[in-house]
Here is the input.
Amino acid sequence: MNTRAVLANEVWRNTHPLMVKDYPQVRTWKQWREIWDKAKTSNELAGLLHYGLDVEYGTGETWYERLEFYLSVADGFNELESYFKPLYESIYLVRDRNYLRAVATKAMQQICLKALKEQYTQSSIIEYIVTRNKLIDFFSEHDCSNTATPDRRSLTKPYRDILTEFLPTFLVHAWAKTTDPEYSKKVFRLIIHTNNLFILEEDARDETIRLLENEVLKQKDFRPEDSPPSIGKILLRGRGNQKEIARLLLALKEMRAERERIRKLMEATQEKEKV
Here is the structure.
């Protein structure tokens, strides 16, 4: 290489934006969190969210830890800007909080792309998530019509589609694996609000029927003289998924009665065989 070429190469190395100093890779979640904690602008936070779920795993680091942190950042992604107003901020001091919701939305988008889309088919992962109750809390703590149904106002179609595909699979596992009564009620409410009633079609347990009865009989689309509404009236005049819920309730009651009839018949047969 001649002298001119060497000098040109040296000038290039000294002036190229990527060559003026060393830019090491962020390799572990611990490093990523340190950079996150030192960030000074929402733009930096949004940029970090793009690769936080992809960094290598250090000793003792887990995928679930990252998911739970991303969920905490995504909290409020579908809320109004006022959701991010500090308690100490004067109500007369108007600030644009859109940039904070944008960061929360970015976190939710990355959860959809790199967690729910790639991981939801692995039942072992879903079962672990269910036991931690984090996603159940996430989808339940806000108005379900904003967070856990296809409305999801601040997410564009690709991300909504991922959530729409993920939720039924997740709720099947959550309904089967959740043992805490309070969390079971949360999962039931999510099943109702997301209209995933198929999950309950073979579940004729007394508790499931009781929850469905409470759901049916608390409907408000009837005149005071109709209260409490009967299942028959809801089948005739119910709105939205009210009719579907009422039909499911009747089907489960019939299933329970049939199972009880068969149980008694088998017991009677066994008694005769003993004689």
Remarks:
- Residues 201-259 form one domain.
- DSSP finds 13 helices and no strands in the chain.
- Confidence is low (pLDDT under 50) at residues 90-94, 143-152, 222-227.
